[in-house]
Amino acid sequence: MQVSTNDFRKGMKIELDGAPYLIVDFQHVKPGKGGAFVRTRLRHLQLGSVIDRTFRAEEKVPLADFEERRAQFLYRDERLHFMGLDTYDQLARSEEEVGEAALYLKEETEVTLLYHKGAPIGVELPTFVELRVVRTDPGLRGDTASGGSKPATLETGAVVSVPLFIGEGDTLRIDTRTGAYIERVASG
Predict the structure, then answer these.
(1) Could you give the residue ranges of the DSSP H alpha helices within the chain?
(2) What is the count of structural domains for the chain?
């Protein structure tokens, strides 16, 4: 199936030169003279590399043909291990193959495994995950929600910027698309 460059959206998956790409960002440009065009930033779904590419307005590009399978993250050793929720088949991937998604994976997280032409190529996380803070500087008396930020290391190894009142042991809701702190989750 083909899609017009005028219909591009963030998160859309297209195929270029036989390889699957994710549209990270796009911008429609209509210069004073000459034809309109679409500037895009694309992430290669197998390699993780990011490229910039310009398309003519209304140019047709094939949508990537993906198969999505629900899975659960089991554990990590030197590889990351997943189990298909429909077939119970297990799949092991390296951190390089999983990419940035590895920073937000904790045991029992449900994910979507992406397959392109029968081969696993990526992991789609839920939009938000809840992770516990394992290391951060202690908050000082008088710190407020609007008083600045500090780095915090989460249980998965990810480091996020958090308000000064966040302490070790707090559980946080994190946006996996941006890696941003959203809120502290009430415990219990």
Answers:
(1) 95-98
(2) 3
pLDDT in tens, 108-158: 999 999 888 888 888 889 999 999 999 998 866 555 555 678 999 999 999
Residue with the two structure tokens 């516990």? 132
Residues 58 and 83 in one domain: no
Cα gap 83→124, rounded to integer Å = 14
Other beta carbons less than 10 A from residue 106's beta carbon? 15
* pLDDT digit string, tens, across residues 66-117: 888 999 999 999 999 999 999 999 999 988 888 788 899 999 999 999 888 8
Burial 151-178, CB ≥16 within 10 A → b, else e: ebebebebebebbbebeeebebebebee
3-state secondary structure of 33: coil
